[in-house]
Amino acid sequence: MAIPVDMAELVNGTTVESTRIEFKTDFNPEPIVHTICAFANDIDNIGGGYIIIGVEERDSVPQLPPRGIPKSRIDPILKKLEGFCHCIEPLYQPIVEPRLLDGKYVIVIWCPGGFGRPYQAAKNVYKNTSDKRYYIRKMASTVIASPQEERELFYVSSDIPFDDRPNLTASPEALSKERMRDYLRSVGSALYSDSEGLTLEELANDLQLLSGPPEDRHPRNVGLLMFSDHTERYFRYARIEVVDLPDPTGEGMTEQVFTGPIQAQLKDALLFLRNYAIRSMTFKRPDQAEAVTVFNYPYAAVEEILSNAVYHRSYQISEPIVVRITPESMEVTSYPGFDRSITDDDIANLHIQSRIYRNRRIGDFLKELHLIEGCNTGFPTTFRALRQNGSPLPRFHMDPARSYLGVEIPVHPAFAPTDKQGEKDDALERQIMAQLQDHPLLMSELSRQLGYKSVSKRLRRVVTAMLGDGRLSAVHEGARVRYTATK
């Protein structure tokens, strides 16, 4: 099975966070097995990690070009590694592949989060009967789990993330080979050139998109969400809706719905928002020579918030992601809200860092497509973009049960709506009061008296508001209604 990531980007940490990559100068079985065990346990649900043998690391920086592994040593190392992996219980076999990097062979070990976790490994791998320990990753280190961490590990191991579960209602044919190949091409994977000769199931296996025994294979949910031509058949509300509300009454409302694979939804929705909703304004300041350009909503902030919603939402909840645009703000709503590892104080202090990742496989794919950044970097990027633009910081809306999350970006002050509409409504209210002082009128009669050809939505809205605050009253004459000013 091939490893579907670009080697240069993997080593440079541009698609996978550096904390998920361990570099080893040479083959040293004990620390390698312990790190395999730690990545397989994936206590933070971030997708496991990678071990690269043949690359020296100094001060957390890989030294390139690599030292490499002589070609004659590769097969013996692979055979020994397979044997040493039997020191892990339950049995866990990572995906291993020799790769060329700058003309030298290195051995890449891919360790996705395992279905059989929690895993434990022999403390001394040369004596498989020795004490076994639960190993986990802490930052960029492999450590033995403390009693508290063991309890946490058993807790997260009791539930396989939804995106990594098989979907028993679908067959492998629900996946699209062309979409999988398009992904490999986009990320610069070495597997792309070989993928044309593979069957759909072989390629899906290489991408770890299938689950089950050979006679009963089913696609995992991540495969249907990202590599199917008919995502909506399996996840009806896995979509993004953009609603523009220029007026609170709904007058002039427009709606755009984005469906299909979630990465395509995200790209299309962001392109639409960039072209349709984001505006700029350039002006001169008296205290500086250069002109200043500001945006009603900085694109970098919108991109991070919507990308986070796609990454962190639950695809088990039949609700879409909704982007709601009004003259005052843009709000992105998704389901559910922040997990309980983020406290109310954390939210109030804008210190939003989650320990639990709902969709680890989706996160891996989106990172390799450069649609999201690393762990816990989304909101800091958002805050920075808003501050640089001179925009207010976002507001977070949730109910006590945290069943939903609304992230609202207030519009930049330079684009804040003026009170012109209010002034126009005040003038219309005075005209209405003048017309209705002496005798009641039907709505159509009032409209003609005010010079309108027909009854407008604005007139109905203003009359309804005046009825609500008691300045007008309604006189019913059978099916007809006349309006009069309250004496």
Number of domains: 4
Number of helices: 17
Number of strands: 24
Task: Name the CATH class of the largest domain.
Answer: Alpha Beta
Shape: elongated
Mean pLDDT: 89
**Strand share of the residues?**
15-25%
Largest sheet: 6 strands, mixed
First-to-last CA distance: 84 Å
Largest sheet strand order: 15-14-18-19-21-20
Give the key terms:
487 residues; alpha+beta; Methyltransferase, Cobalt-precorrin-4 Transmethylase, Domain 2; Heat Shock Protein 90; six-stranded mixed sheet; 34% helix; 21% strand; elongated
Could you describe the 3D structure shown?
The protein folds into four domains: 7-158, 2-Layer Sandwich (Methyltransferase, Cobalt-precorrin-4 Transmethylase, Domain 2), CATH 3.30.950; 180-230, no CATH class; 240-415, Heat Shock Protein 90 (2-Layer Sandwich); 420-485, Arc Repressor Mutant, subunit A (Orthogonal Bundle), CATH 1.10.10.10. The chain is 34% helix and 21% strand. The chain has 17 helices and 24 strands. The strands form eight sheets. It has a six-stranded mixed sheet with strand order 15-14-18-19-21-20, with helices on one face. Helix 11 packs antiparallel against helix 14 (378-389).
Chain-wise SSE layout:
Layout: H1 7-12, E1 21-24, H2 29-41, E2 49-53, E3 57-58, E4 61-62, H3 71-84, E5 88-89, E6 95-101, E7 104-111, E8 120-122, E9 132-133, E10 135-138, E11 141-144, H4 147-157, H5 177-187, H6 192-195, H7 200-206, E12 210-211, E13 218-219, H8 221-226, H9 231-234, E14 240-244, E15 254-258, H10 262-276, E16 280-284, E17 291-295, H11 299-312, E18 321-325, E19 329-334, H12 344-348, H13 360-368, H14 378-389, E20 395-397, E21 405-410, H15 420-436, E22 441-442, H16 443-449, H17 457-468, E23 472-477, E24 480-485
Parallel strand pairs: 1-2, 14-18
Antiparallel strand pairs: 2-7, 3-4, 5-8, 6-7, 8-9, 10-11, 12-13, 14-15, 16-17, 18-19, 19-21, 20-21, 22-24, 23-24
Helix pairs in contact: 10-11, 11-14, 15-17
